[in-house]
Write a structure and sequence with these properties.
The chain is an alpha+beta fold and 87 residues long. Helices cover 51% and strands 16% of the residues. It contains four helices and two strands.
Length: 87
Amino acid sequence: MGNELIKSGALPKIMETALAALQPEAAYFTLDGGDRACFYYFDMQQSSQMPALVESFFMDWHAKVSLQPVMNADDLRRGLGELMSGT
């Protein structure tokens, strides 16, 4: 699919649309296991946002998508505080 998107000239528009929708803190483009790959780091507030955020990758690119929740230092402090207080 990626080859067709590049040949047709559609890839830059799709990439800009994805960047606008996700508004990532960072975006990296590389290879993963011999396949084209992008790594977007963005703030997803609720899991209910998943369809709106990733469906275009399935539809436009036929892509595989993985989501991995992470915490920043403030999130970790808050989570550990809640753990220690028993809440």
